[in-house]
Write a structure and sequence with these properties.
167 residues, alpha+beta, three-stranded mixed sheet, 5 helices, 26% strand
């Protein structure tokens, strides 16, 4: 998705144009940091010398939302690793070894010179994918899924039952 695909539908006046410009063919993920650095949180979109429109925070969020469609059967897993250990293909292999499909993978710098990778996995319970990622040497720092919370509650209840039965 490019900058030209997320132009705001809000009308603008020539005298009210943003001070910063972006090329129409700029990838959307490159537009985000430029928009955050713009003083008025708006960017004018140009194609050669023609003004096509303006991108604001709302139009950018709508565009990003179209890039990441919602799915009820997906879990979110965040892992950390050293930059030299990062391999998208190895992460995908670890997820697929758990009989899950990798829907999205987004990497960014983490804390203390580590990479932080957010995965969206097509499994409502992320536990098998978490175990597989840990077997491959990745550190899982966060996880969320629709049935994951229910699994944690069930585990706590089983532990409480074991304590009660052992009394």
């Amino acid at each position: 998705m490019k900058a030209r695909d997320v132009i705001s539908l809000t009308q603008f006046k020539r005298c009210d144009l943003p001070s910063r410009y972006v090329a129409a063919e700029t990838p959307l993920l490159e537009v985000l940091p430029m928009l955050l650095e713009a003083p008025d949180r708006r960017l004018a979109v140009r194609d050669d010398s023609n003004l096509l429109g303006v991108i604001d925070e709302t139009s950018l969020m709508n565009g990003l939302g179209r890039m990441l469609p919602a799915r009820d059967d997906c879990s979110i897993i965040e892992i950390e690793c050293a930059p030299h250990e990062y391999s998208a293909s190895l992460i995908a292999r670890a997820v697929e070894d758990a009989d899950a499909h990798l829907v999205n993978l987004i990497s960014r710098p983490g804390s203390d010179d580590r990479m932080r990778v957010t995965l969206r996995v097509r499994q409502s319970d992320p536990t098998p994918a978490i175990r597989s990622l840990e077997r491959y040497g990745f550190e899982v720092v966060e996880a969320a899924g629709s049935s994951f919370a229910a699994a944690e509650v069930s585990e706590e209840r089983l532990s409480a039952l074991q304590v009660y039965l052992n009394v």
